[in-house]
Design goal:
Blueprint lengths: L2 H61 L3 H14 L4 H16 L3 H14 L3 H17 L3 H10 L7 H14 L3 H13 L6 H8 L4 H4 L12
Helix pairs in contact: 1-2, 1-3, 2-3, 3-4, 3-5, 4-5, 5-6, 5-7, 6-7, 7-8, 8-9
Subcellular location: Cell membrane
Family: Belongs to the YfgM family.
GO molecular function: protein-containing complex binding
């Protein structure tokens, strides 16, 4: 071995003495991180499989006309897998079953849970829309309108939110607000909503909806 070789070996030994423990610790940490990642992926896969099975059971309970069991199973899945697709869809089934039992208050609880915790914006918007409909059915129009404004929906849902706003306003004889909502829906690009046009056409004419102070009474002399 030449002198140069000895020098290189000495440098390697010095380097290893100084940094060897750090390198080994880094390798161990890296291997531990890889093991943790693999374990997490395995846990997630198992969790998703369990949620899928639970959701299928809820669907079967609903189809078998067992509303109470379906609602309870939906509640449990929502607690164990909060915010997931399966949990959100389960809550919607629970709300449907509650409405079939004439229990809109319970349906509202399920839908509010789905709206607040859904991780998918489209599912959250769908729950929000259904919650507003349930509140309207409970004769709570102002609460329904507040729900519709609680979160901005994805663009694909905007016209449905606006149309429902118009429906609620029309039910309260707020003709101007209903008209504005329906016109907004029809003004959207590529809008061809015949039903909304019919609703708009059936509203009282603006001149009739806004009566003058003396229209229903005697004129002042």
């Amino acid at each position: 071995m030449t002198a140069t070789d000895d020098e290189q070996l000495d440098k390697l030994r010095e380097f290893w003495t100084q940094y060897g423990k750090t390198i080994i610790a880094g390798i161990i940490l890296g291997l531990a991180a890889l093991a943790a990642w693999a374990g997490w992926q395995s846990w997630q896969a198992k969790n998703q499989t369990a949620a899928a099975i639970a959701f299928h059971q809820i669907e079967q309970l609903s189809a078998a006309n067992q509303p109470n069991q379906a609602m309870e199973a939906a509640r449990k899945l929502a607690e164990s897998d909060q915010g997931s697709v399966y949990a959100t869809l389960a809550l919607m089934i629970g709300a449907h079953e509650a409405m079939s039992q004439n229990d809109p208050a319970k349906a509202a609880i399920y839908l509010n849970d789905a709206m607040q915790h859904a991780k998918q914006p489209s599912l959250a918007a769908l729950a929000q829309l259904r919650l507003a409909r349930v509140q309207w059915a409970q004769n709570k129009p102002e609460q329904a309108l507040t729900t519709l404004k609680a979160k901005t929906p994805p663009k694909a849902y905007e016209s449905m939110f606006t149309e429902l706003t118009g429906d609620i306003q029309a039910s309260q004889k707020n003709w101007a607000a209903a008209r504005a909502a329906y016109e907004q829906v029809l003004a959207a690009p590529d809008s061809a909503n015949t039903m909304v046009q019919i609703k708009l056409d059936n509203l009282p004419a603006a001149s009739v909806a806004t009566s003058s102070p003396t229209a229903s009474g005697k004129e002042k002399s």
